[in-house]
Amino acid sequence: MGILTDPNNSRRSAFGSFIMKHYLKISWLSYFSGLVFLFVLPHPWYSHKTYFSENALLPGLVTSEFDQHKSTKRYYEDLKEENSRYPGQAPFPWLEAQFKQLGLDVYRQEFELQYPLANNTFTGSNVYAILRAPKASSTEALVLCAPHRPPNSPHQSTDAGIAIILAAAKYFRNQIYWAKDIIFLITEHEFLGIQAWLEAYHGVRYGDGSINPGNLVGRAGSIQAAINLEIETPDITHLNVKVEGLNGQLPNLDLVNLVNRLVLREGLHPMFQGMEDHPRPESYNGYMRSLSTMFSMMTSQSTGVPSGNHGLFHRFGIEAVTLEGLYHRRKGRMKADF
Question: What is the C-alpha separation between 283 and 305, in angstroms, rounded?
């Protein structure tokens, strides 16, 4: 641009004249070059596999000691019984009782939505429990959350994910090495519940004020990361990692890669955009699957709609992903244990 606009440049006359004379051809050439490079990107030569840029997140240094498989199954069966006993209602009293039995600080949040188009008011509740770090002063926190979905919900159930949260709380309660507070959060009404909780936690209001988040009695430290679980059944073979946030925001890539590595380590098959990596990415079918995954990601980001409750954490500067459990009937695919 400097060559074209500087009147004192002697090269402007020749180079500028060439650009002005052939600008249409150059524009079309640049357009098609970018289009060709777009189709080159999914090839393995131009795309990296899962890798880490921070040694602090290496999963090889982690030893798996989780031993609450029986507790998880018991929580899962009890939760299904509570849902069948009170259909259409979230079993928050039962959840509060389970968290209190573990000795956690348990709180409930009441929120409401003033729907401006029909002059209606919708109410909801969130339940969360806080495990205080024994060796820190509540300056930082992590969130493990799941949305509660009643049996008549059009979305897949999340009972297994809630059962995992309860079992994780039971296991974490007996550990003494935590340096951050851990928040176990169960929300209602999908995006409304998590948005109301985040607004109340950070003391801010977004939009036109149609959501009244109420007040939170208990708080922990500054939230650093969050994992949202959408697991329907204990029998899963794949974990689909959802990363798209509000307006196309994305979490830190190291968090996504960490989840991918740990999923492989536990014998599951990671998925992205609902598709599993092809066993031979250099082949034609492997390239077409990578291309389809890339276009699916571009389409999802262009809508600006989060792919899960994790997407609303991003606007608060919190790294978050959603893990969706899936079961695919295929030969040689072993089901995962709780």
Answer: 33
Q: Give the percent of the chain with pLDDT over 70.
A: 88
- Relative orientation angle of helices 69-85 and 92-101, to the nearest 10 degrees: 150
Length of the chain: 338
What is the CB neighbour count within 10 angstroms for residue 10? Answer: 7
Query: 89, exposed or middle or buried, with CB in 10 Å at 0-12, 13-18, 19+?
Result: middle
Q: How far apart are CA 304 and CA 247, in angstroms?
A: 4
CB 181 within 8 A of CB 116: no
Residue 94: Cβ within 10 Å count: 17
Q: Within its chain, how far is the Cα of 250 from the centroid?
A: 9
| Beta-sheet pairing, 238-242 with 269-272 | parallel
Task: Collect all residues with Cβ–Cβ distance below 8 Å to 65 and sequence separation of at least 6.
Answer: none
Determine how β-strand 238-242 pairs with β-strand 319-326: antiparallel
**Residue 147, Cα to own-chain centre: how many angstroms?**
12
Which of helix, strand or coil describes residue 320? strand
Locate 88 and state its tokens.
């259409």
Write out pLDDT tens, residues 136-155: 777 899 999 999 988 888 88
Backbone angles phi, psi at 66, to 5 degrees: -65, 125
Sort 209 into a burial class: Cβ within 10 Å, 0-12 / 13-18 / 19+.
exposed
| Global confidence as pTM | 0.84
Encode 162-202 in three state secondary structure: HHHHHHHHHHHHCCCCCCCEEEEEEECCCHHHHHHHHHHHH
Q: Which of 5, 207, 6 is nearest to 113 (CA)?
A: 207
Q: C-alpha 8: how far from its chain's center?
A: 55
Q: What is the DSSP string of 43-104?
A: SGGGS--S--S-GGG-GGG-------HHHHHHHHHHHHHHHHHSTTS--HHHHHHHHHHTT-
